[in-house]
Amino acid sequence: MRYSNLPTLTKDRKIFLSTSDIKIDKNDFLYKNIEYKGERLDFLAYKHFGDGKYWYIIAMFNDITNPLVIDKATLSIPLSLRDVEDYISSQNSAGT
């Protein structure tokens, strides 16, 4: 299955095995809300970030632990992918 193996985010030997390992307070970021119409997260990532590989950012930003089961009518999309990536990197660094 497409989402059976969540990406492994590593930095400085700390490994996060799923999107639930790092908590993101979306109020720390600028974001927009979109109506969720059942699209796959990789399609949304491509639409908003230009690359489907960032689907996990949308999952983390919306506390989605299983991308196959999304029970939300609205999803929040961060306006700056780089800011969220920098935050994730800092959390990876802090955990070591």
How would you summarize the topology of this molecule?
Blueprint: E1 9-11, E2 14-16, E3 31-35, H1 41-49, H2 55-61, E4 74-78, H3 81-94
Antiparallel strand pairs: 1-2, 3-4
Descriptive account of the structure:
- This protein has 96 residues and is of the alpha+beta class.
- The protein has one domain.
- The chain has helices spanning 41-49, 55-61, 81-94, and strands at 9-11, 14-16, 31-35, 74-78.
- It is globular, with a radius of gyration of 13 Å.
Element-level helix/strand string: EEEHHEH
Overall residue-averaged pLDDT value = 81
Estimate the strand proportion: 15-25%
Q: Segments where pLDDT lies below 50 for 5+ residues?
A: 6-17
Distance between the termini: 31 Å
Shape: globular
| Sheet with most strands | 2 strands, antiparallel
Helix fraction, binned, reads 25-40%
Q: How large is the radius of gyration?
A: 13 Å
Structural class: alpha+beta
- Number of alpha- plus pi-helical segments: 3
Count of DSSP E strands? 4
Q: Domain count, please report it.
A: 1
Q: Can you list the strand order of the major beta sheet?
A: 1-2
